[in-house]
């Protein structure tokens, strides 16, 4: 057999196995695993780890925030930063705003992504206006073109949907096999807290944390999982930030519900104390849900270790620390008028590798599962993406497990003027990244052409191991609850 490219001498790891193997690549696909493979083009991976290219499954790229401002990264800078962080593909959001159609929304994002992305991309569709046309015609059409995951918000004035609308969306998702994702926080509790804080004159960034109490997340996660269990359809709770929230996800999973949890590095490595930095610096650390505390971090690590979280995502939501981003509403804007979100797309994987694998908290195979395989399975990309096997796309990240670096904004390759992780010392970084067999990052340089990433039409989720259950009231065997089954 002949190959276009062979990755030679490395240690390959998948979500289940770690083994010495060369990787033979032809026409952008992995076509052979074995020793002694040869090709005219060889990457020497001696002493390196050969891992599936990361799949960043939660990031905001070229997206207007709910407060109107545009994210600082477009599909060019966002995808370049992702590639330097060891990702071969990503799935940002396409956000429908009220009054817009879904088809129109996707066309807008096609115009933003196709000419710019250097890695393969798809979209999760944010639905904030579930009209009859959207539910009956546009969501099925989006699904048919490979947009197979929908996100909803339970808070934010301009995007939130109510429980009844949520059920309608879950029902469409169930009919087509789509996955629904939710930002779960109780809107009324947040509003009430904000009003009280503002009335007391507490408007600095540090008050963002108490304005989103942990119990607001727990209440909404319980409600969201209950709605999904009524419909018996898959639901991802994104950016879980509290022990209470994680426990609800864990319990729902233990009962077999089609519920999945996602968490993000900021909740593991930063705390609300960062919001207390002098002047407006705290604005850099504002995200929603907000940063919590060190006790929370310990609990979240345990949930990551024991499988509560299927997904580890950056939630890269970049707004520069200047008048184009965080300070768009003035140099002393009240916290409620400051865009929520922080960057981190290039650090999602190095942070987890260094502090997870490097510190013995998780295995290398867990790392692979969290970096790519789980997202590929849940969001309908597996096995074309997310693993190293014959027949898969040659999406590969070659890691130097011993490479040490101090995090600095200059190394992020994004369009930001800060990184919240500045100064952290990490060990283990990707050094060469491939997408469909082509080098996109090598030797510290970008090798990919702008616009060379391709749209990924995604399939339905793999629900193996998540049986779900019909609630008694909807079980035809009990006549929709009118009589008790014998
Ligand atoms: N939710 C996100 O998922 N990202 C940024 C801000 C938010 O509210
Ligand atoms: Zn969110
Ligand atoms: Zn997000």
- The overall strand count is 21
CATH superfamily of one domain: Metal-dependent hydrolases
Mean model confidence by pLDDT: 97
| Biggest sheet strand line-up | 3-2-7-18-19-20-21
Strand percent estimate: 15-25%
Q: Under CATH, the topology of one domain is which?
A: TIM Barrel
Helical residue percent? 25-40%
Q: What is the rounded distance between the termini?
A: 63 Å
- Shape category: globular
- CATH class assignment of one domain: Alpha Beta
Q: What hetero molecules are in the model? A: dihydropyrimidine-2,4(1H,3H)-dione, zinc ion
Low-confidence blocks of residues = none
Largest sheet: 7 strands, mixed
Return Rg in Å.
22 Å
Describe the structure.
- The protein has 486 residues and is α/β, with parallel strands linked by helices.
- It has a domain at 54-378: TIM Barrel.
- The chain is 28% helix and 19% strand.
- It has twelve helices and 21 strands.
- Strands 3-2-7-18-19-20-21 form a seven-stranded mixed sheet, covered by helices on one side. Strands 10-12-13-14-15-16-17 form a seven-stranded parallel sheet.
- Strand 8 (54-56), helix 1 (75-84) and strand 9 form a beta-alpha-beta unit.
- Helix 3 runs parallel beside helix 4 (163-176) and helix 4 crosses helix 7 (214-231).
- The longest helix has 18 residues, at 214-231.
- 53% of the residues are buried.
- One zinc ion (ZN) binds at residues 183, 238-239.
- Residues 459-486 are annotated as: Disordered.
- This is D-hydantoinase.
């Amino acid at each position: 057999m002949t190959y276009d490219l062979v990755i030679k001498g490395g240690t390959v790891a998948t979500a289940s196995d770690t083994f010495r193997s060369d990787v033979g690549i032809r026409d952008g696909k992995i076509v052979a695993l074995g020793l002694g493979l040869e090709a005219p083009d060889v990457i020497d991976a001696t002493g390196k780890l050969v891992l599936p290219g990361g799949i960043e499954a939660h990031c905001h790229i070229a997206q207007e925030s709910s407060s109107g401002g545009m994210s600082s990264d477009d599909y060019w800078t966002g995808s370049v930063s992702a590639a330097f962080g060891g990702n071969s593909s990503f799935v940002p959001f396409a956000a429908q705003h009220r009054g817009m159609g879904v088809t129109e929304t996707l066309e807008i994002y096609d115009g933003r992504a196709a000419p710019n992305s250097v890695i393969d991309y798809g979209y999760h569709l944010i639905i904030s206006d579930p009209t009859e046309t959207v539910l009956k015609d546009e969501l099925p059409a989006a699904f048919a073109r490979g947009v197979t995951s929908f996100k909803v918000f339970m808070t934010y004035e301009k995007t939130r949907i109510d429980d009844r609308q949520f059920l309608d969306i879950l029902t469409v998702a169930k009919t087509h096999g789509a996955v629904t994702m939710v930002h779960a926080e109780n809107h009324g509790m947040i509003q009430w807290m904000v009003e009280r804080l503002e009335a007391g004159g507490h408007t600095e960034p540090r008050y963002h944390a108490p304005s989103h109490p942990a119990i607001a997340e727990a209440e909404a996660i319980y409600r969201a999982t209950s709605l999904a269990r009524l419909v018996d359809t898959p639901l991802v709770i994104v950016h879980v930030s509290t022990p209470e929230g994680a426990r609800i996800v864990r319990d729902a999973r233990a009962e077999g519900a089609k519920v999945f949890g996602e968490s993000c590095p900021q909740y593991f490595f930063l705390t609300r104390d960062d919001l207390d930095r002098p002047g407006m610096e705290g604005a850099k650390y504002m995200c929603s849900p907000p940063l919590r505390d060190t006790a929370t971090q310990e609990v979240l690590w345990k949930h990551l270790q024991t499988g509560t979280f299927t997904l580890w995502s950056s939630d890269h939501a970049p707004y520069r620390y200047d008048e184009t981003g965080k300070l768009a509403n003035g140099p002393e804007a009240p916290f409620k008028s400051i865009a929520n979100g922080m960057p981190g797309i290039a650090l999602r994987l190095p942070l987890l590798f260094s502090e997870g694998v490097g510190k013995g908290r998780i295995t290398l195979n867990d790392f692979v599962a969290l970096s790519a395989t789980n997202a590929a399975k849940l969001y309908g990309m597996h096995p074309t993406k997310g693993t190293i096997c014959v027949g898969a796309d040659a999406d590969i990240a070659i890691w130097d497990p011993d490479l040490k670096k101090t995090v600095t904004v200059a190394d992020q390759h994004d369009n930001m003027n800060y990184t919240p992780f500045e100064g952290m010392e990490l060990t283990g970084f990707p050094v060469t990244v491939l997408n469909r067999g082509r080098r996109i990052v090598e030797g510290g340089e970008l090798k990919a052409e702008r616009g060379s990433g391709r749209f990924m039409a995604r399939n339905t989720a793999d629900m193996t191991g998540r049986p779900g259950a019909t609630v008694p009231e909807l079980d035809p065997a009990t006549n929709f609850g009118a009589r008790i089954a014998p």
